[in-house]
Amino acid sequence: MSGVSPPGRRYGYVGPPELRQAVVAGTEGQVIRRAADLDAWTAAAGQDGEETFTFVVGPDGLLRLAPRRSEHVACAGGGEVLGAGEVTLRRTGGGWRADEVSNQSTGYCPDPDSWPAVAAALDRAGIARPDGFTYALVFRRCERCRENNVVREGVFVCVFCDADLPAAWNLGASPS
Fold first, then answer.
1. Origin, by domain of life (predicted)?
2. How many C-beta atoms lie closer than 10 Å to residue 173's C-beta?
3. Which of 29, 50, 77, 140 could form a disulfide with 90 if both were Cys (CB 3.0 to 4.6 A apart)?
4. Is the Cβ–Cβ distance between 42 and 53 less than 8 Å?
5. 4: which DSSP letter?
6. What is the pLDDT of residues 98-128, one digit of tens each?
């Protein structure tokens, strides 16, 4: 992507500060530039077939993978991301395919509109993909109690204090 800015908004970390403080430099997720990188990394880890990973898309537009249940902030090296979630990858006769992709990251709380950055990173790596998130979460911060929420069934009400949640993504705003 030389000379071209990756698509999308940058998401800063909004999770517990102690998780960001625990990030060790040089231990970020495995960068996957092409399918051969994924082949080598999964072979070294003794993985084959189908596996679910934690992922982030860095500001450079590159896909980074870590073992499932790893913290997204660690996978990102503590920095901003263009997308984050979980991805289930399967090796097929024609190469790698992302069977499931979500934006499930309570550390970054990316909006579903982060999909174009995720799709571009998967395309760049030569990984076949669905047309959108197979499971998309909607995150909002309550303006009254400042807690992060997952909006369920389109009901924009805070689960902590019953206040109405904003219609637009607002987790980029600093908590008070």
1. Bacteria
2. 12
3. 50
4. no
5. S
6. 999 999 999 999 999 999 999 999 999 999 9
